[in-house]
């Protein structure tokens, strides 16, 4: 009886203890399953992240360092993004022009070189050429113990800012277009350029002899400001009207008479003005064209050998003008002009041509030196990811920008 009472009295306690013995078994089982599940999730997420974020080599360059040991530099897809973006921005900014010229986008335009490449393939080839040369010259600079000065690094920082300021907010978020990566690429480019300049300096190019090949009289520049109005009919947007055969349609005799009269009135006003270029026409929308008469303002750097500005007789009249002189109304077959001679012997065009001749010769001799004496010391190999997975055209393109 006492035993029965004890059992009854301790019934609850006994049951509770029994439950407590079973609970850990269930809890451990759940914890094990949960741990397995979390492990699987971590593996899957880690795998996806690795696939998405792992470095994808696009170029490997092998050469010798200063001690003669073999070194291999790898350029990853992320580092190539600066060149991809620069190239895509360049061609996409002229999309309408290429569509008009090629009948398609530049990327789809066919047979753009002797190998039949389309625009996308040709751009890809040029980008890889740039990547190879940059890396090789960078390795040469490193071998020569060259570094960037503080001023050169500061210049890189400015270039990075300028580049990224030109990106859309969407482009700035792309892997490889972040400030750190772009800085790395442009510092590498700056060091490569510094080595290139050293190579060119060592070539001993006679710059004065090259400048002497430029005829000063051929590059005499006449710097002009002028007002003009066409003799051809124009539509509401100011574009010259053509007939079904593509020929320009002339204004009526009455319209031509008015146009000349308007130009004569403008000539008087311009001659009396303190500034030939200001407050002579009424231009409310800043398109350099008078709101009422259609007379427009422009400038011209007329070179002695130019033949595409005005007619031959009109050019002779202009070239005979003195500095600050304002012409009478000059008439050609296509238009009326009033011209002011700003400088009848401006050295700008001559100086620019001298610079161009020198730079072209430097580039030519460097390219020969690079091809014959520098590039052969390296093995530069485009990687499979670049060859098979990268298609230039819209990698960094931002649809929202167009919208």
Short description:
By secondary structure, the protein is of the alpha+beta class. It contains 14 helices and seven strands. 53% of the residues lie in helices and 13% in strands.
List the SSEs and their pairings.
Blueprint: H1 2-9, H2 11-53, E1 57-64, E2 70-76, H3 77-92, H4 95-102, H5 119-143, H6 150-165, H7 169-172, H8 179-202, H9 207-211, E3 221-230, H10 253-272, E4 296-303, H11 312-319, E5 330-331, E6 335-346, H12 348-374, E7 379-382, H13 384-389, H14 399-402
Question: In words, what does this structure look like?
Answer:
The chain is α+β, with helices and mostly antiparallel strands. It is 53% helix and 13% strand. It has 14 helices and seven strands. The protein has a four-stranded antiparallel β-sheet. Strands 2-1-7 form a three-stranded antiparallel β-sheet. Strand 5 (330-331) and strand 6 (335-346) form a beta hairpin. Helix 3 crosses helix 5 and helix 5 packs across helix 8 (179-202). The protein starts with a helix and ends with a helix.
Order of helices and strands: HHEEHHHHHHHEHEHEEHEHH
The proportion of residues in beta strands is 5-15%
- The overall average pLDDT, rounded, is 89
Structural class: alpha+beta
Identify low-pLDDT runs: 4-9, 11-20, 45-52
The description of the largest β-sheet is: 4 strands, antiparallel
Radius of gyration: 36 Å
Question: Termini, distance in Å?
Answer: 92 Å
Spatial ordering of strands, largest sheet: 4-3-6-5
Number of beta-strand segments: 7
